């Protein structure tokens, strides 16, 4: 008897677009996740079972367009696929949900703020949802939510420790690519910030 496998009918990552069609509206939307990825490449250089995507489409339903967070982290899968680099992140191929998604907003509370939050919680079940909105004046610039019983719960603190990841995430002021300003960074359990690439080079000189 011929066995039917519905996965064989789904498009592959090579057949899907590489990312969303909506351009970023602020340079920080690339810079912040790019810096977080660069730090991970330093501190997790000997670990091969993680992946950090920047402005990459996450396909969770073959009948729907990709979701494109500014950054996302997955753990427990190969950093590189057979051909080297991923053209997109396809859940029916990866079989691994991102553990964290990051959104960097240029407006205090954009229209997609609540819709993205519901999407990541209810449709995907992402454990951590991180929002960074540096243009806010009175509200928290950084919000870290954890999924608890199907709903996101805000975690206070700076940095915020993420035990399932083994890292903390928080705000800090420093110089990167020649510009001094506030950014996000990774921290250890004691709250010490990990070096940025430029700092690591300067330390080794």
Rg on CA atoms, Å? 18 Å
Going across the major beta sheet, what is the strand order?
Answer: 1-3-5-6-7-8
Q: Ends: how far apart? A: 67 Å
- What's the CATH class label? Alpha Beta
DSSP helical segment count = 4
| Domain count | 1
Percent of residues in helices comes to 10-25%
Give me the strand/helix succession.
HEEEEHEHEEEEEEH
Give the percentage of residues in beta strands: 25-35%
- CATH architecture name: Alpha-Beta Complex
Features:
205 residues, 4 helices, three-stranded antiparallel β-sheet, alpha+beta
In short:
Helices cover 20% and strands 28% of the residues. With 205 residues, the protein is an alpha+beta fold. A six-stranded mixed β-sheet has the order 1-3-5-6-7-8. Strands 9-10-11 form a three-stranded antiparallel β-sheet.
How is this structure best described in words?
This protein has 205 residues and is α+β, with helices and mostly antiparallel strands. The protein has one domain (21-204): tt1808, chain A, CATH 3.90.1570. Helices cover 20% and strands 28% of the residues. The chain has helices at residues 28-43, 91-94, 112-124, 197-204, and strands at residues 50-54, 58-59, 71-75, 89-90, 100-104, 128-132, 142-148, 151-155, 160-162, 167-176, 179-187. It is globular.
Chain-wise SSE layout:
Elements: H1 28-43, E1 50-54, E2 58-59, E3 71-75, E4 89-90, H2 91-94, E5 100-104, H3 112-124, E6 128-132, E7 142-148, E8 151-155, E9 160-162, E10 167-176, E11 179-187, H4 197-204
Parallel strand pairs: 2-4, 5-6
Antiparallel strand pairs: 1-3, 3-5, 6-7, 7-8, 9-10, 10-11
